[in-house]
C-alpha cells in the first residue's frame, strides 16, 4: 500500500512539474498568433478575389460576350 502511495505522489509531482514548465515556457505559437494569421489570409484572399472580379467585369467579360455573339452570327 505504501508503494502505491509513493507512486501516486511521484506521478502527481511529475504532473505539477510539467505544468510549471509549460507555464514558464515562452516558446510556441499562441492562439492570438494563429487568429491573426487566419485573419490576414482571409483579408488578402478577399482583396485578390475582388481584384479578379473587377478585372473580369470590365475587361474580359465584355470582349468575351462580343466574341461569342460574333461566333454565332457567322454569315460565312
From TrEMBL:
Pfam families: DUF6133. This is Flagellin Flp1-like domain-containing protein. InterPro entries: DUF6133. The chain crosses the membrane at residues 35-56. Keywords: Membrane, Transmembrane, Transmembrane helix. It comes from the Bacteria. The lineage of its organism: Bacteria, Bacillati, Bacillota, Clostridia, Eubacteriales.
